[in-house]
Specification:
Blueprint: H1 3-32, E1 43-48, E2 51-52, E3 56-58, E4 64-65, H2 67-79, E5 82-87, H3 93-98, E6 104-110, E7 119-120, E8 125-134, E9 149-153, H4 157-163, H5 169-177, E10 180-184, H6 187-195, E11 201-205, H7 206-214, E12 220-236, H8 241-256, H9 259-266, H10 306-309, H11 322-358, H12 363-378, H13 381-396, H14 404-430, H15 434-442, H16 447-477, H17 489-500, H18 504-530
Parallel strand pairs: 1-5, 1-6, 9-10, 9-11
Antiparallel strand pairs: 2-3, 3-4, 6-12, 7-12, 8-11, 8-12
Length: about 525
């Protein structure tokens, strides 16, 4: 290959690296200097599961809404706080609260069985666990479930009602009589199993069941008998009684002037709401504040936002078309691409460094690299992301800002993929015949010149196929960022799917992954062809 072509390729490579660096600097600048915002108001950060309608979910306009979020919005309006709606992964809710990333958990949060784990408000919803089945199933009462397959959401109140330590004897007997008790990820999956005949019935919260049934055709039946009842409350960090009392007082003021009841009617939860001024004692034994004892920033119901308090008889599900779904997914697509690009930018050169340490003549360095690679390849990426995100607080007691979620995602992905790239690079380097190194030494090349001019170009050609596989895997693995509550595309698709009671948004996301990976494979194949001259 002539020298002119080599120079051109070097220029293109340098230009590409420069563009990536500009992109990275822009991302970091936007997160470090997001612009001026008012810091005068106190932030009230509500942690919620964005896949739990009607209490909290994403609506057809791409906005987070729901019964609990409407209550929180009205509380913030009256207290002159700034409401921050923060979707969290339910399995990480306790760590989010402990580290101060959220002010409270307000999302159909069951108090029963958790009385001593949080500082609780008084209950505001009497929730029930109900069973849904097909009308043609012949199942009309709970005893008819004997020998049937029942599906519940994993780590849900319905599962606890059947198999929990405080489950009733009747429910334990019912669970024992089932042919199988299956656990599914979410309520959409539960209904999909029911519709396809894979299960005979599903159990869930009555509010969620009513929302789901309102969006389905008339082929399902809710049994009159209930599995269990429990109370919903607002969970604050243990000991945070001051914030709890402020929120509780505001809710009671809303109850007194009728605003609470209007929000209840809007979401069709008249049969479940139970907030009462007669509850004068919290679970922990302390006294509930009396309405009128504080009028800080209180507003009358007549000044309340009509869009918040207007009764509408329950949520209506407006189905979105593919264009609207893509539009809502656009911010998630940008997040996914950002994670993908930045991970490659850091992981690929870091992998080369680790590979060099792995092949070091110094045994202690070699073993350090071996242990690192073993840990990164031998433990789940999801666990590594959690360690990177929560370690600053639990190890060093340092509370990190919300923007750290993005950095933790990039750090976690980069450290993980660098280990895989390191082993791929090592195999490519060690596959070069030793004779080439000896020939270069005879010709007067230094070790650095030998590596970068002779070994490295050949290694790149050899490792392109396995590197391409890792890059394609990375595209799909970006969805694991959900564990840090970083909203990338697939997390956004799940939130839209929950609000739409349909799996179609997930299939739209799947098409994006396929197209993205097709482009990646096409580009990598083109690079591989351009490097044919190394044969």
């Amino acid at each position: 290959m002539n020298q002119v072509k080599i120079i051109k390729r070097k220029k293109y490579f340098a230009a590409g690296i420069l563009c990536i660096l500009v992109f990275v600097l822009a991302l970091f600048a936007s997160s470090m200097f997001p612009g001026k915002t008012s810091s005068a108001k106190q932030e009230f950060i509500v942690g919620f599961d964005a896949e739990f309608p009607p209490y909290g979910y994403m609506d057809e306009n791409g906005e987070y809404t729901g019964f609990d979020l409407d209550l929180a919005a009205e509380v913030c309006k009256r207290r002159d706080w700034t409401l921050v709606k923060r979707p969290v992964i339910w399995d990480s809710k306790d760590s989010e609260l402990e580290t101060g990333a959220i002010s409270c958990i307000w999302n159909g949060f069951t108090m029963n069985g958790r009385e001593s784990q949080y500082t609780w408000s008084t209950p505001y919803v009497d929730n029930s666990q109900v069973v849904i089945t097909r009308k043609d199933s012949g199942i009309m009462k709970l005893s008819d479930l004997s020998g049937k397959v029942l599906a519940v959401q994993a780590d849900s109140s319905a599962l606890a009602a059947l198999e929990g330590y405080d489950a009733t004897d009747e429910n334990k007997a019912l669970a024992a009589s089932l042919k199988d008790l299956q656990q599914v990820e979410n309520y959409n999956s539960a209904f999909m199993n029911l519709e396809s005949g894979m299960v005979d019935a599903i159990a869930m919260d009555i509010g969620v069941a009513a929302y789901q049934l309102s969006a389905k055709d008339d082929t399902f039946l809710m049994l009159d008998e209930k599995l269990s009842s429990e109370e919903y409350g607002i969970g604050f960090k243990l000991g945070n009684t001051e914030l709890r009392d402020e929120v509780q007082l505001t809710l009671l003021e809303m109850l007194e002037d009728g605003t609470f009841d209007n929000i209840v009617k809007k979401w069709g939860l008249e049969d479940s709401a139970c907030l009462s001024k007669e509850d004068t004692t919290y679970i922990d034994g302390s006294q509930v504040p009396v309405p009128g004892s504080s009028k800080k920033n209180n507003e009358s119901a007549s000044n309340a936002d009509s869009s918040t308090v207007q009764a509408s008889g329950g949520a209506k599900v407006k189905k979105l078309g593919i264009t609207e779904i893509i539009k809502q997914l656009s911010s998630g697509i940008t997040a996914t691409i950002s994670v993908f690009v930045l991970t490659l930018l850091f992981a690929m050169p870091l992998g080369l460094v680790i590979a060099a340490v792995r092949m070091s003549r110094f045994k202690i360095l070699e073993w350090i690299a071996k242990i690192y690679i073993s840990i990164m390849r031998g433990t789940p990426l999801m666990l590594q992301l959690l360690v990177v995100f929560f370690a600053p607080y639990y190890v060093f007691r340092i509370s990190m800002p919300y923007s750290y979620r993005f950095y933790a995602t990039i750090i976690g992905f980069s450290l993980n993929y660098a280990a895989y790239f390191a082993e791929i690079y090592r195999s490519g380097i060690q596959g070069i015949p030793q004779g080439q190194r000896e020939a270069a030494q005879i010709m007067g090349y230094s070790k650095g010149q030998t590596f970068f001019r002779i070994i490295f170009p050949q290694m790149v050609k050899r490792v392109l196929p396995p590197v391409t596989n890792e890059i394609i895997t990375l595209v799909k693995d970006t969805s694991l960022a959900f564990v840090l509550s970083y909203t990338e595309m697939f997390t956004l698709a799940k939130q839209i799917a929950a609000g739409q009671t349909s799996l179609f948004p997930l299939f739209v996301a799947g098409v994006f992954y396929y197209v993205f990976n097709f482009i990646v494979a096409f580009v990598m194949e083109g690079i591989e062809k351009r490097l044919d001259y190394y044969r």
